[in-house]
Each structure stands twice: as C-alpha cells, then as structure tokens.
C-alpha cells in the first residue's frame, strides 16, 4: 500500500539521521544499543529503517545525543523560546505502522523541560490478553486519560486507568500500556527528562 511505503521511507529518513548523529559524535553501535536498551543487531535495524521506532527508543536516542526529538524526526531544531502555540489538531506526529500515535504539543519550543504528547492508543483484540510490551526511558512521566480506558503495568503493578484518571511514575522502571476499549484510548502524556532537565540536556 502507498501508506506503508510512505511510512517505510519515513523510517529510513529517521534511521539515517540517527546513524549520522551517532557517527558525528563518535558513539559506537554497542554504546547506543546499551543506551536504548536493545541488542546491537536490533539497534542496527533501527538505523537501517527496517524496524518501527518506539517512543522510548527515540527518546533514549535524543537523550544520548543531547538533542531534541525534532532533530531526529525532521532534521530541524526548535526555534521558539517565549511561547509555543499549538491549535487543536496540530502538533508534530510520530507516525507508526500500528499501535500508538504520538502528537507532540510543544515541538516548536527549544530547550523545553518536558515533552507533552497527545497519545492515541488503538485497540487490538488479538493482543488483548498478551503480556504488555515493556519499555524504559530516563526521567519521569505523567499520563492523564482523556477518553476510553488504558491497561497499564509498571514493574509488577498492573492497573486500569479510566477517563479522568492519572498516574505519575519513574519511567526508568519497565512500563507498558494498551487500550482496553474497542474505540481506543486518548491520553495526555508528559515526559520529563532525568534530573529535571531537558531530555538530553545534561547527558554526555
């Protein structure tokens, strides 16, 4: 399908930027694999654009490189420093083949202290009873459910968030989530970098 080819091209572009930044900064594949919590062979698939990017992978890459996620996604850095206004339906989307769709609501603001996302989680009946895919990234995260319900696991703790529920947690611990309602789930996710700084701002 045309849409699949567009996504594949997009993955190849992002993977190329990640590879270029890694090489410019003199970071080995093995170091990046450790920073992103992947095996070296799996990490190479990301750079080659042959594996769909998870949010955690992109976030961890940006932290390791000391850049904004926009540098990886678009090749351009944010420029605004007083305020950034994002209207309804706008924002920078992280396109995925399946699962979660992230829309960054502050992508134009430079040196920001947090990454606010509007997240749309699609319902997948085939995976409803399967174990959650767990991810980690440095810092802390706040999730607030706007509609639908979200099954969530943090370490060994499993619970369901309904509309109006919120959770704040240490995102360096393994965590995963999935929509429990057939209509999917929409929630606000605010990701804060380690040590209260901008993601990537204080890491060598």
Write the layout of secondary structure elements.
Blueprint: H1 2-24, H2 29-36, H3 40-47, H4 55-65, H5 69-73, E1 92-94, E2 100-104, E3 114-121, E4 140-147, E5 150-154, E6 157-161, E7 166-170, E8 175-179, E9 185-192
Antiparallel strand pairs: 1-2, 2-3, 3-9, 4-7, 4-9, 5-6, 5-8
Helix pairs in contact: 2-3
Give keywords.
25% strand, 434 Repressor (Amino-terminal Domain), alpha+beta, three-stranded antiparallel β-sheet, six-stranded antiparallel β-sheet, disordered N terminus, Jelly Rolls, 9 strands
Helix-strand string: HHHHHEEEEEEEEE
Describe the strand arrangement of the main beta sheet, using strand numbers: 1-2-3-9-4-7
What is the CATH topology of the largest domain? Jelly Rolls
Question: What is the CATH superfamily of the largest domain?
Answer: Jelly Rolls
Instruction: Determine Rg (CA atoms, Å).
Output: 17 Å
Structural class: alpha+beta
* Secondary-structure arrangement, i.e. CATH architecture of the largest domain: Sandwich
Task: Count up the helices.
Answer: 5
Shape: globular
Unreliable spans: 1-6, 195-204
Largest sheet: 6 strands, antiparallel
What is the end-to-end distance? 41 Å
Helical fraction equals 25-40%
Domains (count): 2
């Amino acid at each position: 399908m045309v849409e699949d080819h567009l996504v594949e091209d997009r993955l190849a572009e992002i993977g190329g930027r990640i590879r270029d930044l890694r090489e410019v900064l003199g970071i080995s594949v093995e170091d990046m694999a450790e920073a992103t919590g992947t095996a070296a062979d799996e990490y190479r698939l990301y750079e080659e654009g042959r594996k769909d990017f998870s949010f955690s992978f992109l976030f961890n890459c940006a932290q390791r490189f000391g850049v904004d996620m926009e540098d990886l996604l678009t090749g351009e850095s944010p420029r605004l420093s007083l305020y950034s206004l994002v209207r309804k339906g706008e924002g920078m989307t992280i396109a995925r083949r399946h699962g979660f769709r992230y829309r960054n609501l502050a992508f134009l603001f430079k040196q920001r202290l947090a990454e606010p996302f509007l997240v749309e989680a699609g319902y997948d009946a085939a995976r409803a009873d399967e174990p959650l895919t767990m991810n980690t990234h440095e810092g802390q995260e706040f999730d607030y459910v706007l509609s639908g319900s979200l099954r969530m696991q943090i370490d060994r703790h499993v619970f369901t968030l309904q509309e109006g529920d919120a959770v704040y947690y240490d995102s360096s611990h393994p965590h995963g989530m999935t929509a429990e309602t057939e209509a999917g789930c929409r929630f606000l996710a605010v990701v804060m970098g380690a040590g209260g700084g901008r993601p990537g701002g204080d890491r060598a």
